[in-house]
């Protein structure tokens, strides 16, 4: 009887919330659907809302913060335990890694933990482009023993829930967030991979990460202090630089700790001794937090090519920088990058280098401030070159929520044209038709 | 053809305008681009309120000011617009068409406003419709040309069919006008022209006959007039130059001269009568009683008949009213009866009858006289025609009496004919006059 009453109360609360959500005016801001747990597991309560994305913030970050900051006055069940903080969020194309503080472990039950992950994942799925979400607590996989490991992809909740409720069920494949070094060897980027579920996740992850020949041996081990670690033996003659090795170590650490539940860190050894790189001995257990300096978001910029199209170029960038439009745009003023795609502006290199003065965002409109020297030099651009250049900037910036339109200014004064074929009187919007896939 | 295409494209552009409203307000480039792509094979361009392209199916005009007249008109008027163009590849005057067409093609442009936020422009290839229209147009032209050609040929044939006989007829008339009465035209076939030609030929026959008769008449009249004049001349010269002249003989000669003068007078009088009749002098027709006229005429000539020992009877079976001129009809009956008396011998009979038949008054004057040979019967009504000239002179005839009879009867709408079984078997003259209705 008590449980029936309890269910009845929750049902009423649910109805009231639904009514409130339906009757509410559409929220201003970047549209998002927030998902909250309900008493009727595993159904979630979707709430349409709008995000106010501040400077140096991404839509994903704002969405997770909204979930975390849910108060009792919202008449919904909090998806995260009180005190939960967002330690970090990484975004790479369609993959998002959300790292919550240890307070998230204070979920009332295993089910609550599962639903917390579901709420975060499905909220992020409502944002454009997000396809895979990995939720970590303090840099480690959720302690959901028996539950499907790895990332959550945009598939039906009931399927995941069924597997969660039946630990003995056949798992099939799962998605692991693999961390890989960026082409420039400065950062590690998350990249989802499909993994055949099995008992030896460690081997599976190392193999899929193509760690050989660097990693020669590996095993799970328990330290004397009770921490569970992966002990990795390295090849002393792998032929890599210390910087490269360090990057690989960070990548493997984040990969393993993000996937294997209960894994506290990774211990690297070389010839039975701690690894020394650049004069530093790495005898401590590596965790995700020790790799933060390498964790990068992947940003996508559109580079004009020599065939009159825009090609996506993906670059790793520290999360802080990835959310700054100016940092992202700076990539497009790099002559070497443009040249790599066969695009020749015909402008002097020094003009291009100092062209970008800044990017400001007001609401959903970004304003690119260009140098007078650059604007003057652009008068000689052909209509096709102008179009490609301008829309490379526009398409790049409009990937960054909440930007939907782009204006232009010389120093601080608005301009209406560069060489004259593109009208800049009003903000320009995204032109997806000019984009060609990298492989085309 | 165009209207069907217009309806479909207008529907598409209307749909795009409706769906673009929200995306345009949000400045959602992806949504606008997707909408443009949903236009199918047509090119769609979505512009903002300034006419700047925000989305383009071909992604060639993004950011450019679209000066397409239909777009500008739609933005200004707030109403849908449409236009048609013939565009050639590489035509740089219409950037909206650049990259869209190959070769020379017909293009239709439709523009619809999207509230006050912008407009949608649809550029559709209507070359198929244009080619279909051109094909139809060429077919119509060919058919029309063919019809004109056929009509021309048919017209020429008909004209030839009409004008050739007319030309022949016209030539014939000209010949007749010049006096060539022998002219005849060809009258082959049974159509109206052949009938006309035959009628013309008949007319020519008649004119020729009349001309011949005229000539003959003049000749006869001259002869008839000269004859008594010659006699008068001879007698006068005899009286004047014969020495000595017996007074008795002179008196006899003068008496002959007097008779010839009377004869001459009669001929001239009859000629004048005929001329008058020929000139269609107005006749005052009045209702007359034929029987009464016959009766009066018969009474006048009865003494003459009695003197010659001829029995003359009158039988009026019906009193028949006719419309006619009393004097003239009396002359008809007088001439016929007088002739009968002249050419019937002593002891002969003259029977005069009048009866109604088929709404006509039929008057017969039958005698037992010298009769008329068959070959002469059709000529007795000709002027100056005498079966027996000598006998006619003796009786004082001018040869014009029956001509006068026929002319008067014809003027009254009647007919006159003669029948005779031959010489010395008498003659019957029949006059038919229409009864007065």
Give a short summary of the structure.
Chain A is of the alpha+beta class.
Describe it:
The complex is a heterodimer of chains A (440) and B (437). Chain A has three domains: 2-171, no CATH class; 200-294, Alpha-Beta Plaits (2-Layer Sandwich); 296-434, no CATH class. In chain A, helix 2 (59-68) packs antiparallel against helix 3 (110-125) and helix 5 (201-208) packs across helix 6. Chain A has twelve helices and 21 strands. Chain A is an alpha+beta fold and 440 residues long. In chain A, 43% of the residues are buried. In chain B, 53% of the residues lie in helices and 19% in strands. Chain B contains eleven helices and twelve strands. In chain B, strands 2-1-5-4-3 form a five-stranded antiparallel beta sheet. Chain B has a five-stranded mixed beta sheet with strand order 7-9-10-12-11. In chain B, strand 1 (43-48) and strand 2 form a beta hairpin. The two termini of chain B are 74 Å apart. At the A-B interface, helix 12 and strand 21 of A face helix 2 and strand 2 of B.
Topology:
The complex is a heterodimer of chains A (440) and B (437).
Chain A: H1 2-23, E1 30-37, E2 44-51, H2 59-68, E3 86-92, E4 95-100, H3 110-125, E5 132-137, E6 140-141, E7 152-153, H4 157-165, E8 173-181, E9 188-196, H5 201-208, E10 215-222, E11 228-234, H6 242-259, E12 265-270, E13 273-277, E14 280-282, E15 296-304, E16 310-318, H7 319-322, H8 325-330, H9 335-340, H10 349-353, E17 356-362, E18 365-370, H11 372-377, H12 383-397, E19 405-410, E20 413-414, E21 428-429
Chain B: H1 2-26, H2 29-37, E1 43-48, E2 53-56, H3 69-77, E3 81-88, E4 104-114, E5 118-125, H4 127-178, H5 192-241, H6 247-278, E6 286-289, H7 290-307, E7 311-316, E8 321-324, H8 326-342, E9 349-357, E10 360-367, H9 374-377, H10 389-394, H11 401-411, E11 415-420, E12 427-434
Parallel strand pairs in B: 7-9
Antiparallel strand pairs in B: 1-2, 1-5, 3-4, 4-5, 6-8, 9-10, 10-12, 11-12
Low-confidence stretches of chain B: none
Q: What integer value in Å does the Rg of chain B equal?
A: 52 Å
Oligomer: heterodimer
- What is the H-and-E element order of chain B? HHEEHEEEHHHEHEEHEEHHHEE
Helicity of chain A, as a percent range: 25-40%
Globally, the shape of chain A reads: globular
General shape of chain B: rod-shaped
């Amino acid at each position: 009887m008590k449980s029936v009453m309890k269910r009845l109360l929750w049902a009423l609360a649910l109805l009231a919330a639904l009514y409130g959500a339906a009757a509410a005016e559409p929220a201003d801001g970047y549209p998002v659907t927030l998902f909250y747990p309900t008493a009727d597991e595993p159904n979630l309560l979707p709430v349409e809302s709008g995000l106010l994305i501040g400077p140096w913030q991404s839509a994903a970050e704002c969405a997770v913060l909204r979930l975390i900051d849910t108060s009792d006055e919202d008449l919904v069940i909090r998806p995260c335990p009180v005190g939960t903080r967002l330690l970090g969020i990484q975004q790479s194309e369609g993959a998002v890694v959300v790292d919550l503080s240890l307070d998230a472990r204070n979920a009332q039950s295993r089910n609550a933990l599962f639903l917390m992950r579901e709420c975060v994942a499905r909220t992020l799925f409502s944002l454009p482009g997000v396809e895979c979400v990995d939720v970590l607590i303090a840099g480690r996989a959720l302690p959901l023993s028996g539950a499907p490991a790895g990332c959550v992809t945009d598939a039906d909740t009931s399927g995941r829930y069924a597997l969660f409720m039946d630990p003995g069920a056949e798992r099939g494949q799962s998605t692991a967030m693999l961390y890989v070094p960026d082409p420039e060897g400065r950062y590690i980027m998350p990249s989802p991979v499909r993994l055949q579920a099995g008992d030896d996740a460690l081997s599976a992850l190392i193999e899929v990460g193509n760690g050989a020949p660097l990693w020669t041996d590996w095993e799970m081990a328990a330290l004397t202090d009770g921490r569970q670690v992966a002990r990795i033996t390295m090849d002393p003659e792998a032929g890599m630089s210390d910087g490269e090795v360090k990057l690989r170590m960070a990548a493997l650490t984040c990969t393993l700790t993000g996937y294997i539940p209960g894994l506290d860190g990774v211990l690297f050894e070389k010839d039975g001794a701690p690894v020394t790189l650049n004069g530093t001995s790495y005898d401590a257990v590596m965790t995700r937090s020790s790799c933060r300096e390498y964790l990068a978001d992947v940003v996508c910029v559109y580079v004009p090519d020599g065939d009159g199209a825009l090609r996506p170029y993906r670059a790793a960038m520290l999360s802080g920088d990835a959310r700054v439009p100016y940092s992202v745009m700076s990539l497009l003023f790099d002559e070497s990058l443009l040249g790599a795609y066969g695009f020749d502006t015909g402008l002097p290199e020094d003009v291009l280098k100092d062209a970008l003065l800044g990017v400001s965002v007001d609401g959903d409109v970004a304003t690119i401030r260009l140098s007078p020297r650059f604007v003057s030099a652009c008068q000689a651009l052909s209509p096709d070159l102008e179009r490609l250049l301008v829309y490379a900037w526009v398409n790049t910036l409009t990937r960054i929520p909440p930007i939907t339109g782009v204006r232009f200014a010389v120093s601080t004064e608005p301009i209406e044209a560069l060489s004259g074929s593109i009208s800049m009187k009003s903000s320009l919007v995204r032109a997806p038709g000019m984009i060609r896939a990298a492989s085309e | 053809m165009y209207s069907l295409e217009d309806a479909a494209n207008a529907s598409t552009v209307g749909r795009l305008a409706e769906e673009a409203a929200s995306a345009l307000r949000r400045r959602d480039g992806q949504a606008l681009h997707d909408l443009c792509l949903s236009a199918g094979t047509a090119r769609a361009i979505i512009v903002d309120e300034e006419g700047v392209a925000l989305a383009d199916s071909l992604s060639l005009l993004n950011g450019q000011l679209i000066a397409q007249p239909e777009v500008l008109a739609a933005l200004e008027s707030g109403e849908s617009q449409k236009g048609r163009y013939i565009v050639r590849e590489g035509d740089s005057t219409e950037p909206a068409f650049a990259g869209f067409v190959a070769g020379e093609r017909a293009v239709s442009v439709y523009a619809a406003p999207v509230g006050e936020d912008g407009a949608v422009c649809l550029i559709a290839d209507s070359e198929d419709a244009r080619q279909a229209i051109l094909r139809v147009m060429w077919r119509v032209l060919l058919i029309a040309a063919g019809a004109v050609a056929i009509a021309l040929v048919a017209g020429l044939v008909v004209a030839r069919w009409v004008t050739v006989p007319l030309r022949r007829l016209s030539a014939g008339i000209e010949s007749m006008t010049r006096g060539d009465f022998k002219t005849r035209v060809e009258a082959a076939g049974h159509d109206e022209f052949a009938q006309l030609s035959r009628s013309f030929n008949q007319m020519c026959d008649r004119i020729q006959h009349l001309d011949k008769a005229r000539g003959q008449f003049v000749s006869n009249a001259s002869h008839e007039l000269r004859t008594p004049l010659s006699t008068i001349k001879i007698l006068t010269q005899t009286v004047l130059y014969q020495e000595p002249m017996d007074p008795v003989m002179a008196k006899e000669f003068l008496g002959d001269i007097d008779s010839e003068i009377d004869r001459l007078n009669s001929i001239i009088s009859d000629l004048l009568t005929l001329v008058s009749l020929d000139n269609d002098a107005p006749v005052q027709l009045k209702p007359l009683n034929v029987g009464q006229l016959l009766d009066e005429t018969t009474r006048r000539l009865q003494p003459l008949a009695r003197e010659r020992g001829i029995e003359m009877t009158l039988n009026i079976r019906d009193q028949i009213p006719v419309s006619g001129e009393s004097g003239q009809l009396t002359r008809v009956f007088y001439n016929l009866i007088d002739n009968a008396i002249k050419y019937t011998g002593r002891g002969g009979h003259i029977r005069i009858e009048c009866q109604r038949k088929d709404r006509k008054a039929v008057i017969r004057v039958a005698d037992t006289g010298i009769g008329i040979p068959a070959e002469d019967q059709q000529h007795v009504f000709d002027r100056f025609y005498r079966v027996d000239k000598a006998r006619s002179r003796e009786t004082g005839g001018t040869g014009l009496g029956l001509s006068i009879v026929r002319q008067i009867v014809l003027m009254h709408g009647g007919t006159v004919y003669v029948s005779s079984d031959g010489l010395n078997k008498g003659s019957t003259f029949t006059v038919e006059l229409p009864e007065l209705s």
